């Protein structure tokens, strides 16, 4: 069996699975996406004083101002996910959650850590896809200029492209370049191939489905916080674990909304 036929068969299998679970895929994607915000909001809620003290000392801000910033980050992460799950004011919820990511990147100096920065970009990519899904699900208004509608669709496709590219950053952050054993080489090759396919939109649904499974498996083995004993290590690994689950959710949204016009799949149809 040649490679093309094998991929086609795998694509048929994944399409059948996705088609049979069409209503469940986007719901599961949204649930996985918001888990990281629930977890982080819960973490802040029970450690408010530590977070306020850190920001106060790190940025020389008045305690009251630091407290307001921390409460903003906490409450938004506990409330906005419910809006997303209930499909109410999703765009506003995405913007507010995006602002929390930016504030955390600034206040906790994550911009100086490339790994954390890459992970935050991945989560922003998830929010971008979620916002795009919401726009695409809106019923088109009657009497609209066809040219305007085409321009909007093209813009949405570009946003989907940006979201896809941001998602693959998470996989990059999970890869450890610490050896050249056989299994490590296999991990690098699989990760690279799936990442490129998702980024350029080649066999997008199959690649996204495979990458979601691959990320989930890597996450279980690399971020096994439940088997740790050190409290600090548990916190860091739990944070990474739920962030990775959010990106898995983002990949499920890619399966749901498709690759958009700016993708290899769509260009292939036009050839």
TrEMBL record:
The record's listing under InterPro entries reads:
Surf4
Classify the main location: membrane
Taken from the UniProt entry, a GO cellular component term is: membrane
For this chain, the family text in UniProt reads:
Belongs to the SURF4 family.
Per UniProt, what is the membrane topology? Multi-pass membrane protein
- Record keyword Lipid metabolism present: no
Question: Which controlled-vocabulary keywords does the entry list?
Answer: Membrane, Transmembrane, Transmembrane helix
Transmembrane stretches, by residue range?
63-83, 90-111, 117-136, 157-176, 182-202, 209-226, 241-259
- Output the lineage of the source organism: Eukaryota, Metazoa, Ecdysozoa, Nematoda, Chromadorea
Q: Which domain of life is it from?
A: Eukaryota
User: Where is the protein situated, by its record's location annotation?
Assistant: Membrane
**Name of the protein in question:** Uncharacterized protein
């Amino acid at each position: 069996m040649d490679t093309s036929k094998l991929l086609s068969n795998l694509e048929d299998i994944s399409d059948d699975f996705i088609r049979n679970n069409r209503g469940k895929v986007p719901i599961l994607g949204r649930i996985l996406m918001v888990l990281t915000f629930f977890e982080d909001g819960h973490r802040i809620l029970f450690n408010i004083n530590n977070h306020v003290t850190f920001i106060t000392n790190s940025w020389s801000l008045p305690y009251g101002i630091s407290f307001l910033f921390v409460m903003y980050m906490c409450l938004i992460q506990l409330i906005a996910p419910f809006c997303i799950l209930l499909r109410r004011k999703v765009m506003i919820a995405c913007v507010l959650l995006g602002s929390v990511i930016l504030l955390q990147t600034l206040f906790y100096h994550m911009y100086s850590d490339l790994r954390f920065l890459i992970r935050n970009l991945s989560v922003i990519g998830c929010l971008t896809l979620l916002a795009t899904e919401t726009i695409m699900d809106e019923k088109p208004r009657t009497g609209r200029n066809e040219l305007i509608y085409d321009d909007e669709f093209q813009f949405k496709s570009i946003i989907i492209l940006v979201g896809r590219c941001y998602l693959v950053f998470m996989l990059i952050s999970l890869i450890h370049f610490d050896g050249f054993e056989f299994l490590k080489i296999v991990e690098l090759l699989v990760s690279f191939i799936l990442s490129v396919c998702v980024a350029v939109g080649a066999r997008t649904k199959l690649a996204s489905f495979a990458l979601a499974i691959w990320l989930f498996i890597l996450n279980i083995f690399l971020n096994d916080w439940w088997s740790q004993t050190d409290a600090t290590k548990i916190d860091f690994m739990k944070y990474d674990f739920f962030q990775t689950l959010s990106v898995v959710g983002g990949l499920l949204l890619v399966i749901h909304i498709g690759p958009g016009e700016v993708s290899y799949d769509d260009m292939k149809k036009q050839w």
